[in-house]
Design a protein that fits this description.
It comes from Streptomyces gottesmaniae. The protein is an all-alpha fold. It has six helices and no strands. The N terminus is likely disordered.
């Protein structure tokens, strides 16, 4: 790591860690949704909405700190990109849960549980990685594994689309389910964006 003569605002590290921990909460709610019947989904969606609002608050706190700090631990643009990508993950997960409830989906297609399992694992890895931004240690395996998970998510997504268009589902049901699996895929992409930003930061700081 480069030697610095100037002090740095360190509260960003705690805020990134808190944001990532909140994403783990969101991924657990997604997992809970899988095993819930239709009557319980509205309550899960309400808790997911609260988690998404908490994520928004965390993101706004990072932006406020960024705008009020003269010296930052790493490039301002990278801080902004990292905070925005973390926020995107929560937005996509909340949207997926909300769509399941709004569309009154009785049963999610096989394969969605695999999507959510990938997101849950990516959430755990991201939460474990954020505290390491302080030292930039032990991050390489993190972004490599998240990229691998995103590739896995792509494969799962393609298989889900093939199944949705195999003629088993009514056209309106295809539209509903496709939107849900697409949003879950966007969440996987957002995890990769976070990992790529962390890699960029680590390279600059090395």
């Amino acid at each position: 790591m480069r030697f610095r003569l100037t002090p740095r605002e360190t509260s960003f590290y705690d805020m990134f860690a808190a944001s990532a921990d909140n994403i783990v909460t969101g991924s657990k709610l997604l997992m809970e949704l899988l095993g819930a019947d239709a009557s319980a989904r509205a309550e899960i969606a309400e808790r997911m909405r609260a988690a998404e609002h908490a994520g928004d608050d965390a993101t706004h706190a990072i932006f406020h700190q960024l705008n009020s700090s003269f010296i930052t631990p790493f490039d301002r643009e990278d801080i902004y990109n990292l905070a925005s990508s973390l926020d995107d993950i929560m937005d996509f997960m909340e949207e997926a849960v909300d769509l399941v409830v709004l569309y009154n989906v009785e049963e999610l297609p096989r394969g969605v549980e695999q999507q959510i399992e990938v997101l849950a694992r990516a959430a755990e890895l991201t939460a474990e990685a954020m505290p390491n931004l302080r030292t930039m240690d032990n991050l390489t395996e993190y972004w490599i594994e998240v990229n691998r998970l995103e590739n896995q998510a792509d494969q799962i997504h393609r298989k889900l689309l093939a199944m949705l268009f195999n003629g088993k589902y009514e056209a309106i049901e295809v539209l509903k389910l496709k939107q849900i699996v697409d949003v879950l895929e966007e969440a996987a992409d957002a995890f990769e964006h976070v990992a790529n930003t962390v890699e960029t930061i680590a390279v600059k700081e090395s």
